[in-house]
Description:
By secondary structure, the protein is an alpha/beta fold. Helix content is about 50%, strand content about 10%. The protein has nine helices and five strands; from the N terminus they run αβαβααβααβαβαα. It has helices spanning about 5-15, 35-45, 60-75, 80-85, 95-100, 120-135, 155-165, 180-190, 205-215, and strands at about 25-30, 50-55, 85-90, 140-145, 170. It has a five-stranded parallel sheet with strand order 3-2-1-4-5. The longest helix is centred in the middle third of the chain and has 20 residues, at about 120-135.
Amino acid sequence: xxxxNYQKELDALINNIKxxxxxPSLLLHACCAPCSSYTIEYLSQFFEITIxxxxxxxxxKEEYERRLEELKNFLPRFDVALKNNIKLVxxxxxxxxxxxxxxxxxxxxxxxxxxxxxxxxxxYKFRLEKSFEYAKENNFDYFCTTLSISPFKDAxxxxxxxxxxxxxxTKWLPSDFKKNSGFxxxxxxxxxxxxxxxxxxxxxxxxxxxxxxxxxxx
Length: 218
């Protein structure tokens, strides 16, 4: 199967959007402030953005709240977000939704997987489903996620899920935000704004994997 360049797809779409007088609306699922930084900087030139914080996968609750507070505190300090009136929508934190979606009780071997495996695909899917549902109900033109900015996330799986959910009214925005030095720029912005950068993806399984790696290399 030929690998798709999702950044080129996004470039082509943006070229078409530039010809419109009004910016289309975009619901942008976000997992944290660092991943949001470059993505907002890049996309706010072309879209009216609302950040959608839905991450019941994050463990423990204190970590979830820390990442959310960092995002809330970052947006008013980020000149690009202020200039473009970036909004934030926060969904309730119900971890059961994550565990119901990944079904580790039926597939216990997936608890030990590294990132980009089947467990992660399920996690992408249920968060994107929720994002699409909200975007559709609130008449957004596009929906997307910041997840593809991470080198540890599978952009192919993320885009495939997004395209499957996409409708004529609420379209998926193809993306691989790590391209064009996007990940590098997110690191620069994180340093500039002293953003908290977590050392694991978010779920209890990724946290355990991260702790195991630390023990190996310490």
